[in-house]
Amino acid sequence: MTETVPAYVLDAFAVMCYLNREPGSPRVAEVLERASTKQCAVSLCTVNWAEVLYTVLRGRGRQVAEGVVARLDALPIDLIPADRDLSARAAELKAPGGISLPDCYAAALAQRLDATLVTGDPEFKRVANVVDIEWLPTTDE
User: Fold this and answer.
1) Regarding the domain delimited by 7-135, which CATH topology (the fold level of the hierarchy) does it fall under?
2) Distances (CA, A) of 91 to 25, 85, 105
3) Domain boundary assignment for the chain
4) Each residue's pLDDT tens digit, 108-135
């Protein structure tokens, strides 16, 4: 009998929070530390990975972005491709509006994996009824 571990999905907000040492970063670091010892599983959709990358490229340039890619590659995060099924799930979440398409991919991945979505992005309030969300603090409390 295999024991299942808690599963988490990070969105770009959570990853950027961690990279920039923002108020929610200690919680993201804790989840990643638990993943490194197989106490939980952490996933990130390739669409959200791309969102992190273009944000860093736009704001800090190619050299910093390459460093971020190396940091992400070293973390215990399963990078999950945006396949047809995941895209269909994301489209269903996007259809009513009020949430970005990348965020819909994160939510769809959390649904697929029966995982908790870790974020501080208020757009996710639109899907909180269909996805388990752990809200990161957005200010020092």
Assistant:
1) Rossmann fold (3.40.50)
2) 29, 10, 8
3) 7-135
4) 999 999 999 999 999 999 999 999 999 9
